Amino acid sequence: MQITSEQFDTIKHAFPVQRGNVSIDNLQLLNALLYVAEHGCKWRGLPKEFGNWHTVYTRMMRWNKAGVLSNVFMELQRQQILNLEINVLSVDSTIIKVHPDGCGARKKWQASYRSL
Q1: What is the phi/psi pair of residue 50, to 5°?
Q2: Contact indicator for 14, 82 with CB cutoff of 8 Å
Q3: Whole-model pTM?
Q4: Which residues contact 35 (CB under 8 A, 6 or more apart)?
Q5: What is the residue extent of each domain of the chain?
Q6: pLDDT (average), residues 51-75
């Protein structure tokens, strides 16, 4: 799942203008995001051909907060370049033992305070 240069030219108006010394262009970053979405890998598992994983992650987070990512993916689907469909949803949780005070258990000082 990669976007070609010709496909990118039709949607590049949805991206912010790159300023300054940028090591990864918007097309390369979009392809890196699509790679992570398709393969479900960790950020550190991103192949070196996409650049530094931390750079990709940082820019993705900035774009997400600014609403750029939703505009980009809406444009990709509107122009039928990419059709995304969620077939499987997985939720992972971690079990952490909570201290009794965190569960609402009675505290020693509450029992002595109420008797006063």
Answers
A1: -90, -5
A2: no
A3: 0.66
A4: 1, 2, 41, 46, 47, 50
A5: 5-78
A6: 89
